[in-house]
Write a structure and sequence with these properties.
Order of helices and strands: HHHHHHHHHH
Number of helices: 10
């Protein structure tokens, strides 16, 4: 599903940083860092982006969706409801088509569209696979 734990450990080793220092540098709770290092689930989107920003890498690299480490600065991401409109327009699909093809509920997509919630990392990975694009594109970071 995801190689986040392995990639995070690798990046920490390369940067010579431990969990406590990473938590301090990113503002992410130390227990969350330990949870991710154990491979016990996926982070919230904000946490994923903070980690990617800290290591100057893509969220896709962190998640193991690409093996290519590309050290670069990414754009600050817009609110997901705004980005969802861009995504639908870019791929020329409707919310209805997105729901049906990805098996996401109408309620979920509407909550994203209305700015009430943002997708989980798991949902972003599903969307990226369906649309054949990067998670960073979905987040508006590229």
């Amino acid at each position: 599903m995801s190689n986040l734990s392995e990639n995070l450990k690798y990046l920490m080793t390369e940067a010579e940083i431990d969990a406590r220092n990473l938590a301090q540098a990113t503002g992410i709770d130390l227990s969350t860092i330990h949870t991710l290092l154990r491979g016990d689930g996926l982070p919230y989107v904000d946490t994923l982006v903070k980690l990617a920003d800290h290591f100057n890498c893509s969220t896709d690299y962190l998640l193991g969706l690409t093996d290519t480490f590309c050290e670069t600065a990414f754009k600050q991401r817009p609110p997901f409801n705004e980005q969802l409109t861009v995504i639908l327009r870019h791929f020329k699909i409707t919310k209805y088509r997105l729901e049906k093809d990805t098996h996401l509920s109408e309620k979920t997509v509407n909550r994203w569209h209305n700015g009430k919630t943002q997708p989980t990392v798991e949902s972003l990975m599903r969307l990226a696979k369906y649309l054949d694009c990067s998670v960073d594109f979905l987040l508006g970071r590229v």
